[in-house]
Amino acid sequence: FAGERLSEGWRSVRAIGPGLNNLGNTCFLNSVLQCLTYTAPLAEYLMAHEHSGSCRMGDSCILCRFEAQVTHALAKRSGSAVSPKPIVGRLKLVAKHMRIGRQEDAHEFLRLLVDSFQRSLLHGIDPKIDRRVQETTLVHQIFGGYLQSQVTCSKCDYDSNTFDPLLDISLDIQSGSSLTKALRAFTRPEHLVKANRYKCEKCSKLVDATKQMSVYKLPRILTLQLKRFSIFGGGKINRFVEFPLHLSMKNYVSRNSPEHGPYDYSLYAVLVHAGGTSRSGHYYCFVKSPAGVWYEMNDSMVRQVSENTVLKQTAYLLFYERSA
């Protein structure tokens, strides 16, 4: 898919769309759908009906259903809420283990939903096709980038680089009070010494080394998860983590990256969890409308809010769009 076909921001000013009815613990799904609905390059592409016009999957295509959802939402004045039944009714196509009526983790659902979009886009294409070619779909052109893990030998300065595709970045917030601190911690060099020494390809022996994670290729849409939930105990970090309306990623890009900017991103959606664990409590979100106004989308309720209100939220997922 040619990335140039995607719009930079919204092509026209539209009113905020409707809320989504809760069909029984579906707030995790509603909040994710709302964040994706206000992801401008995705929404603008889907409203042109290019996907449904050429889709080969038929009734089992979740992307076709989401296209219908987005088109309906952005063509309708807010007022009465709509029901996301076409997607809720086919939850099994997104994730076999998810059950209607049971609270699920919004980040996990986001990942599985985007994966189901990817499956729709690759349907009918040889599954043996090169992985790098698979990473050029609409999904990867919008949400995708590459992470680089670089290990540098302390003896000969040889760099060993490993590249992995990213669709979002999960950030540890155990000790950080801001998004900037969490990103710094994510890209902080780690020293491999003693029991963790590294086998250098050039020296052919175990050596002290430095390992650093960085972003090799920046995505058009940057999705950040603040890791609030413990994998083991299921407990939650309720700490407020400061995040900006405008974020520069320049300091987190690999030294050998081909990126030449822009490095600046603007916030357009914030997903929030209220409660004690990822599978209990309540999810809702804040989105920036095509007119540039912020709204709280809390299931069927839609209300205008200030930027200041948004920035005070205890965010779980943050969505940023790259500046043109």
UniProtKB/TrEMBL annotation:
What GO cellular-component annotations does this UniProt entry give?
cytosol; nucleus
Q: Which domain of life is it from?
A: Eukaryota
Family membership, please give it.
Belongs to the peptidase C19 family.
**Reaction equations catalysed:** Thiol-dependent hydrolysis of ester, thioester, amide, peptide and isopeptide bonds formed by the C-terminal Gly of ubiquitin (a 76-residue protein attached to proteins as an intracellular targeting signal)
Enzyme Commission number(s) from the entry: 3.4.19.12
What is the designated name of this protein? ubiquitinyl hydrolase 1
Coiled coil regions, renumbered to chain: none
- Supply the alphabetized keyword list: Hydrolase, Protease, Thiol protease, Ubl conjugation pathway
Domain USP per the UniProt entry, residue ranges: 18-323
Q: Which CDD domains match?
A: Peptidase_C19E
Q: Name one GO molecular function term.
A: cysteine-type deubiquitinase activity
Gene Ontology biological process terms, A to Z = protein deubiquitination; proteolysis
Species source reads Linderina pennispora
The keyword tRNA-binding belongs to this UniProt entry's keyword annotation: no
Q: What class of enzyme is it?
A: hydrolase
Q: Does the keyword Hydrolase apply?
A: yes
Short name of one Pfam family: UCH
